[in-house]
């Protein structure tokens, strides 16, 4: 049956409303946007209405929408072998794993593939517990690690609270100078006091009970909280002192988002386990994984690892990783993310802050930025939910898809975003902030 484009948008909404149950939502009032296609940093509906995607969907489309090399890799693999069990050896799977470990630090040779970031963190926690013989996992209150059993309880935000069915989780405060928990007045004080706080939590919980410290290298959904100099190296020191496994969650921050293959490459730290997903193939096929340091991997040469997934190392996902990483390397996409962040995004956002008092802080690097919005710069009172909702609506109406979380706009376009697109987005942000100021 043929439909004109308006009918297709309406039919898409009708089907969604009738049959799709959405995540993190009360279902009754939902009116999701229709997306029918995309290219690079732009998406559109069936009627052809175009939007700049400055959310990268869920901060995962690092290479941009419909990159031909990734699409082609998936098509070619589907024509050769669409699926195979994880107990087999498969060339695409092995080539994908090789490309991943080539970008990891020395001393990492093995990858356990998962279906996404949540089960990557789930299995990293399992590995840490089996390796240490301990139970407790420490993670920060300002964090998001996924929506499976241990991953959601490791998460610090509100989504943990109705889902606390896993045992052995303790939370602590990480550094966040703008809203310091430690009465700090400088990055140096914030770092020192945050590390002291973490050590006291370790000591109070009992070091011999703690299997892992699980951290997002740069907490993403919690606010793009760039750690102060020395903090991650200090956490590594504490983990070493007390025999604790350090897991760095690179699900959102990895594979180009910060302008580096791994965010931790900029922070003088090497973890014991690295979790990844999102940017490794920009979400074209669901995939994630754990990169395992050699000492932990060697433990399972004789000991059975009690975990597995039907789609671990799925050939289509593996092919998409090969296509994405080769294209990112060959086209200099990670290097471009550094330049566009330093030369375009950062200056544009700081200029917006100069013009609009509602912007309390600008922070970020690469294509990973946040605008923290406040009702008052002096008190730093967060901007209200109603104002954030109006601001989001204003941005979408002007043709920009934002990533909005609490009182923040996360400016997180694909790594391939151009300077012209940044300028377009900055103009849209400017107009929306101006309208907000008039309405207040």
What report would you give on this structure?
The chain has 13 helices and 16 strands. The protein has a 7-stranded mixed β-sheet, sandwiched between helices. Strands 11, 12, 13, 15 and 16 form a 5-stranded antiparallel β-sheet that branches. Strands 1-2-3-14 form a 4-stranded mixed β-sheet. It has 440 residues and is an alpha/beta fold. Helix 8 links the parallel strand 7 and strand 8. It is 40% helix and 17% strand.
In short:
The protein has 440 residues and is α/β, with parallel strands linked by helices. The chain is built from 13 helices and 16 strands. The protein has helices at residues 5-19, 56-59, 68-80, 91-102, 117-132, 149-154, 187-205, 231-242, 294-299, 315-330, 333-355, 385-397, 419-439, and strands spanning 37-39, 42-44, 50-53, 108-114, 136-140, 169-172, 210-216, 245-249, 273-276, 288-293, 359-365, 368-376, 381-382, 400-401, 403-405, 408-411.
Oligomer: single chain
- Give a short account of the largest sheet: 7 strands, mixed
**What is the helix/strand order?**
HEEEHHHEHEHEHEHEEEHHHEEEHEEEH
User: How many helices does DSSP assign?
Assistant: 13
Widest β-sheet, arrangement of strands: 4-10-9-8-7-5-6
Global shape = globular
Radius of gyration: 22 Å
Strand element count: 16
The overall pLDDT average reads 96
